[in-house]
Amino acid sequence: MSIGLDPRAFPTVTPVAPGRGIERPPNGSGTRVLVVESDPGLRRWYRQALADAGYRVDEAPGGEEALERLRDEPAPDAMVLEVELAGMSGIELLRRALVLHPGLAVVFNTKCEAFKAHFGTWGADRFVVKSSDLSELKTALAEVLTHCRS
Q1: Which pTM does this prediction carry?
Q2: Residue 113's pLDDT is what?
Q3: C-alpha span between 26 and 40 (Å, rounded)
Q4: Contact 97/104 with Cβ under 8 angstroms?
C-alpha cells in the first residue's frame, strides 16, 4: 500500500559505524595537522587516512623540516610525530615546538612503547604505539584537539 510520499523529498542518510564518529575533527573539517614521520610510505598513509577523516595534513620527513615549518608558517592545530627521526629527535622537536607554540596539541606516534617512560616525551598530550589500525591514532588526535580547544 502506498501512502503517496515522494522518496526524493527526503535526504539520504548514511549511517556511521559505531565508534567511528570521533575520528572527525572537532568543530568541523579543516583542522590542520603536521605529520612528522621519517618513513615516506607511512607518511603518505597517515596523510591519506587523516585527510579522509577530514583533516588538512601537512607533512615533514624530519625534525629540522618540521621546525622550519613551525617557524615559517602559521601554527598547525596539532602535530603527530615519531620519536626516532633523522637529524633531530622527536623529543628535541617537541621541546622546540612547544617553545614556539606553547598550546600546540601533540601526539607521539612511535613503534617503541619504552619511549613513553622517557621524561622528554611527557610534554606530548598523548602517546600512541604504531599499529596497522589507525583508529587509536585518530581517536587520540580528536581527543587532544577537543581538549586543547576547550
Answers
A1: 0.75
A2: 60
A3: 27
A4: yes
Kindly state the DSSP code that residue 50 receives in the 8-state scheme: H
C-alpha closest to that of 110 among 87, 94, 95: 94
The domain 27-149 having CATH identifier 3.40.50.2300: the answer here is: yes
Burial class (CB in 10 A: 0-12, 13-18, 19+), 56: middle
Name the grid cell of 103. 598550546
Nearest to 98 by CA among 130, 118, 121: 121
User: Alpha-carbon distance 30 to 65, whole Å?
Assistant: 22
DSSP string computed for 9-43: GS---PPPPTT-GGGSPTTSS--EEEEE-S-HHHH
Domain limits, the chain: 27-149
For residue range 18-55, what is the model confidence (pLDDT) as tens digits? 344 444 444 335 799 999 999 999 999 999 999 999 99
The closest alpha carbon to 93, from 115, 117, 124, belongs to 124
pLDDT above 50 for 9: no
Q: How far apart are CA 74 and CA 40, in angstroms?
A: 24
* 3-class secondary-structure state, position 3: coil
